Amino acid sequence: MKNNDCLFCKIIDGSIPSAKVYEDEKMLVFKDIEPKAKVHLLAVAKNHFKSLSEMDDEQSELVKYMLVKIPEIAENNGCENGYRLVINQGGDAGQTVFHLHIHILGGQILDW
Ligand code: 5GP
Ligand code: ZN
After folding, report:
1. Does residue 1 have a pLDDT over 80?
2. What is the 56 CA–ligand 1 centroid distance (Å)?
3. Which residues contact 8 (CB under 8 A, 6 or more apart)?
4. What's the pLDDT at 40?
């Protein structure tokens, strides 16, 4: 389901452009516009849901699907030596876009 006010839903439907690196019927991976590492990708499920705290069983299956796909996508995009996955959940973590997304960070040695 799409949310008309959601930035990532607009990226998914193409009304806002993005640098896509992977797409299938369930998920999209694109480059973060303000990269925090040499490689910084965002993986999103095409079905809109806000965050981990709103996730139902069907959505948790989508997160699992993305986690299974991410290793190959990351390795094909400059993260063959490793990468870090981040989900910012809520305000204290700095979540700014309320469409669940997994940050993929790599392409360099990452400080903790
Ligand atoms: P959050 O802070 O919610 O975990 O992550 C949102 C991410 O979306 C940020 O890293 C931010 O740089 C990225 N972002 C915000 N607006 C855009 C945009 O229009 N296009 C792309 N590709 N990334 C965006
Ligand atoms: Zn959305």
Report:
1. no
2. 24
3. 42, 44, 48, 97, 99, 101
4. 98
Q: What is the pLDDT of residue 3?
A: 85
* Cα–Cα dist 37/70, whole Å: 17
Q: Is 101 a catalytic residue?
A: yes
Q: How far is the CA of 58 from the centre of ligand 1 (A)?
A: 24
**pLDDT per residue over 87-108, tens digit each?**
999 999 999 999 999 999 999 9
Across the range 40-45, mean pLDDT stands at 98
Q: Find out whether the beta carbon of 18 lies less than 6 Å from any atom of ligand 1.
A: yes
The answer to whether 29 touches 104, Cβ cutoff 8 Å, is yes
- 43, with CB counted inside 10 A (0-12, 13-18, 19+), is buried
pTM: 0.97
- Rg of the chain in Å (alpha carbons): 13
Residue 99, token pair as written in the block: 């469409």
